[in-house]
Design goal:
heterodimer, A: 554 residues, alpha+beta, 7-stranded antiparallel beta sheet, 4-stranded mixed beta sheet, 19 helices, disordered C terminus, B: 185 residues, mainly alpha, 8 helices, elongated
């Protein structure tokens, strides 16, 4: 039995795991004394923290030096001025503070306030670009990659992505510790230092900032300057083709700086002790990021062949496997893949030239999907009453539990398809697809069509199980056809993915596996509509991919 | 045209608005009452001097009031307050320079406290040891821990500190593992 990591247990205890994962942890804990004891130890430490807050922080930190101001009077003062100048008024209120506040502090506060209010006008372009970049990277499983970090005094490299906890623990280089401290100082994510999400998170917490967006070669460059915090300027370069971050730089107020860039070679062997590698990769840092053309040298066609081969062994459905192009090679990486599965994947890919297969153990126990507990019942009384009626409709509680488990399994299988389809559409957008030969385009569309057809069958089966019950609970399916037909199968795939996700969400809500904001009374109708939407989108996508194949066949 | 009816409507509108403002004031005042000391202490842990921390804590609640008056929706006011307090605290700290951070010297305060004759000595030793372990955490680990102790969820802590939710999980894990050692030793 593989045991739970501290972080997972802590996140479980803190209620921060998604419902499904929490159920898996709970099931594991029921079976495993060792992990249960571990959890109890964590809880003991949490208790100690609470005691510390109470008996040390609350008791021994100096109390407020003055009585608290009458807040109602301050409200009145703020309301006495027109809305637009309230902050200015507030600044004035604070400029004449209680007798014990030194004038310098008050002045600093006033400056801060004024800046905070008036300069908080983020450049829409930068924000929008970051949002797009985050969305583009959001759904892809993380793949380990090596980045180079450089400061004025030292440089180092580290593997990021894939298994963050393991990667972080693996840092043995003292230079990395120094650089990590710089990131902490900067309030910038160390776990994911070269990503749009981290840049966005850093940028969004700034009270005042100024953005610039420029186009340099084939990249967008976002530069954000700020008066707040230790970093005065941060830059992120996003590759235009796919909005992938390729380079970042933080400049500190004390003139120190740190530069992050992706290494050209496939990720070197991570220093995770239990990493398994099938191909010898250089562990030493490689040269700096080369031109984009070299990075994309591995042809799209070969990548597609790899994806098709993975599809043959079903490894594109749910396994955390990522396919990337790197320096003329196709890198297939997987995290936490079972040995038997690893052998299958090697069998499918080893004969292909320029394909590297790497598996990394995350050191994190992931129980098999079959280890799923029955759906847990969620909060509101309304939802509980809906469950009672659902259970009654299907012939009692045990039947309901059984149906729940079946539906959640089916939903998981459907989402694996939806993710695989979306990944395919994102890896081969229309402009990349045009670079492919006719045979490869046919293969690509065949793959897309197969996913669409499987999604259709899966959602239809779920609909068959659920629709009569939902109708008897008062549900009515109303689905308007999509106003705009997608212009390409890739867009159709995106529509279908969102429809499937909506269906999954509503299903989890109705089965009590996840909390939600939809009123219980509307759940049956909304779920019926969502299921119908998946079916029609899947049909539409089947047509789109078939038409395209016809067009290509000429 | 001005009619008795329209005047009546206008009057009713004014009354409604007044009531809404009074309700809002009451809500913010209640939150101020409940959370001001927590915000104040959090600001002390960021290195603000007590007068600064108290002033900034008050300002955070006024800021909340102004934001709500503008009609903005705030889903979790407590998390919002800590996020704004954190940003304001760092801004004040940045202006003050690294030299002048406030050090409450909790260790000296703990040592100078007369131990309770019943169970005090051992208890005090334990508290001291735990305090040293907290002091040994990195800034980010400590901040995540303090904010978690104030009841913020991971995404809220991430939003306050400008880091990802997974980074919060990792910082908290590291903090708890280190504190566990101190606690179990």
């Amino acid at each position: 039995m593989r045991h739970m990591e501290d972080e997972r247990l802590l996140r479980y205890a803190d209620g921060e795991l998604p419902a499904r994962e929490a159920r898996q942890v709970r099931t594991h804990l029921e079976a495993c004394w060792e992990c249960r004891a571990e959890l109890e130890e964590l809880q003991e430490t949490v208790k100690e923290c609470v005691r510390y807050r109470k008996s040390v922080l609350q008791e021994h930190l100096p109390p407020p030096p003055a009585p608290w101001a009458d807040i109602y009077r301050q409200f009145e003062e703020l309301d006495a001025v027109p809305a637009g100048s309230r902050w200015g008024r507030m600044a004035r209120v604070l400029a004449f503070p209680a007798r014990w506040v030194p004038a310098a502090i008050a002045a600093a506060l006033v400056c801060g306030l004024v800046l905070y209010e008036w300069q908080d006008t983020p450049t829409v372009e930068a924000a929008a670009l970051l949002r797009k970049a985050v969305a583009a990277s959001g759904e892809r499983p993380a793949v380990p990659r090596r980045v180079r970090l450089r400061t004025s005094r030292q440089q180092a490299s580290r593997v990021i992505g894939g298994a963050p906890a393991a990667a972080v623990k693996a840092s043995a280089d003292p230079a990395l510790d120094d650089i990590e401290r710089m990131f902490e100082r900067a309030n910038y994510s160390w776990d994911d230092p070269l990503s749009a999400r981290s840049f966005q998170a850093w940028r969004e917490q700034l009270p005042a900032k100024h953005d610039e967006v420029a186009t340099i070669d084939d990249c967008y460059r976002i530069r954000t300057t700020t008066e707040a915090g230790e970093v005065k300027e941060a830059t992120l370069k996003l590759r235009m083709a796919d909005l992938q971050p390729v380079e970042g730089r933080l400049e500190f107020r004390d003139n120190e700086w740190v530069e992050i860039s992706e290494m050209v070679e496939a990720p070197a062997e991570p220093t995770v002790p239990d990493a398994v590698a099938s191909a010898g990769l250089p562990a030493a840092p490689g040269p700096v990021q080369p031109p984009v053309a070299a990075r994309r040298a591995a042809t799209l066609g070969r990548e597609l062949q790899v994806m098709a081969a993975l599809h043959q062994v079903g490894a594109d459905l749910g396994d955390p496997i990522e396919v990337t192009r790197a320096a003329g090679q196709i890198l297939v990486s997987g995290v936490g893949i079972a040995p038997e599965r690893q052998r299958q994947i090697h069998g499918a890919l080893d004969a292909m030239p320029d394909v590297l297969v790497r598996f990394v153990e995350p050191g994190e126990a992931v129980p098999p999907p079959s280890e799923r507990a029955a759906a847990e019942v969620a909060a509101s009384g309304e939802v509980l009453s809906l469950h009672a009626r659902l259970a009654e409709q299907v012939g009692g509680r045990p039947h309901f539990e059984q149906l729940s488990a079946q539906l959640l399994d089916a939903s998981e299988a459907m989402m694996s398809r939806a993710y695989a389809l979306r990944r395919l559409a994102q890896r081969f957008p229309p402009e990349s697809e045009r670079e492919l030969g006719a045979r490869e385009r046919r293969l690509l569309r065949d793959l897309g069509r197969e996913h669409a057809s499987a999604l259709f069958t899966q959602s239809a089966a779920m609909e068959k199980m659920l629709a009569p019950v939902l109708v008897s609970l008062g549900g009515r399916a109303v689905t308007a056809p999509r106003a705009i037909q997608p212009a390409s199968w890739q867009l159709g795939a995106e529509d279908l993915f969102h429809a499937a996700r909506q269906m999954e969400k509503l299903l989890a809500m109705i089965l009590g596996a996840a909390p939600g904001d939809v009123p219980a009374g509307e759940l049956p109708s909304q779920l019926l509509a969502a299921m119908a939407r998946v079916r029609t989108d899947a049909e539409a996508l089947e047509r789109l991919t078939a038409e395209d194949i016809g067009a290509q066949g000429r | 045209m001005l009619t008795i009816e329209s005047l009546g409507d206008e009057f009713a509108g004014v009354v409604r608005q007044k009531r809404a403002v009074a309700k809002l004031q009451q809500q913010v005042a209640q939150l101020f009452e409940e959370a001001r000391e927590d915000v104040y202490r959090y600001l002390l842990t960021l290195g603000l001097y007590p007068p600064q921390a108290q002033e900034a804590a008050q300002e955070v609640f006024l800021r909340l009031y102004v934001t709500l008056r503008k009609g903005e929706e705030i889903r979790n006011p407590r998390a919002w307050i800590f996020r704004v307090a954190h940003n304001l605290g760092l801004k004040i700290r940045a202006r003050e320079g690294a030299e002048s951070a406030f050090d409450p010297d909790l260790e000296a305060r703990l040592v100078s406290t007369m131990p309770d004759p019943e169970c005090g000595l051992l208890e005090r030793e334990r508290a001291l040891q735990f305090h040293r372990a907290v002091e040994g955490l990195s800034d980010q680990q400590r901040r995540c821990l303090h904010l978690r102790l104030e009841g913020l969820r991971y995404p809220e802590i991430g939003s306050a500190l400008g880091i990802s939710t997974s980074a919060v999980g990792e910082f908290l894990r590291r903090a708890i593992v280190r504190l566990k050692k101190a606690h179990c030793e």
